[in-house]
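Appendix B. Raw example, untouched.
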Amino acid sequence: MIHLDSPDDPRLTDYTGLTDVALRRVREPAEGLFIAESSQVIRRALRAGHRPRSLLTAPRWLPDLTDVLSACEDAGAEVFVAEEPVLEAITGFHVHRGAIASMHRPAMVPVADLLRGARTVVVLEDVVDHTNTGAVFRSAAGLGVDAVLVTPRCADPLYRRSVRVSMGTVFQVPWTRIEPWPAGITQLQQAGFHVAALALTDDSVPLQDFAATRPEKLALLLGTEGAGLTPASVAAADTVVRIPMHGGVDSLNVAAASAVAFWAVGEDATTARPAQLGSAGSAPGARAR
């Protein structure tokens, strides 16, 4: 346990520039680390088998972190302790959730390994907002999605905002990057997955109709904020699906759309679909964006 009086200790480089998103999204994968913020998220990371590199906390939180401190000791990870003003000078923001940890970033799993045994997977195409990425993971964990695939330009699920918004569920839902894209759609189809794109097209199928006869193995494609899925991805999909909307609204935020779609195609929704999701009527479709 190392007590700090200054933010200039060279051993603290894992925690510098945390508010610089552009810098951190490059640094963290390159340096093999990710940041877990808050004692709850750190505990979930540890339970999922992630190894700590170091821990940064304030003296007043130490009595509540005995299990975390023990895990750091077992892993040979340094524990840095400093008062709140020093922590803020190091990280660039007020650390008020108990602690912040630098964790070893796991290696990417091959897509084929992730698909093996999966029944429902979701692909996030170029979703660039870390909040949306974390929210999708939380819905995926809660609504029975087996795995998440992210395209090369998608936000990093292990960026600290994504991890925090997901409440640590990024540690329990298997995920990896799929590339090249959209050529990766062929890999999904060859693995036996029916690929369904959530988008607005003239031939799109209402979600409740599609869910009523969902394929055994299903891959749902969700597109980026604003533009939605690329035309190439929509064209390569086996089916295009829309969420019927009301009130002149054409679409939902991608995180909200993901939750609706995951529930609709999940096993728990089988008996409730017709009554609770309603009919398509003449309502416009909803693109996942």
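End of appendix B.
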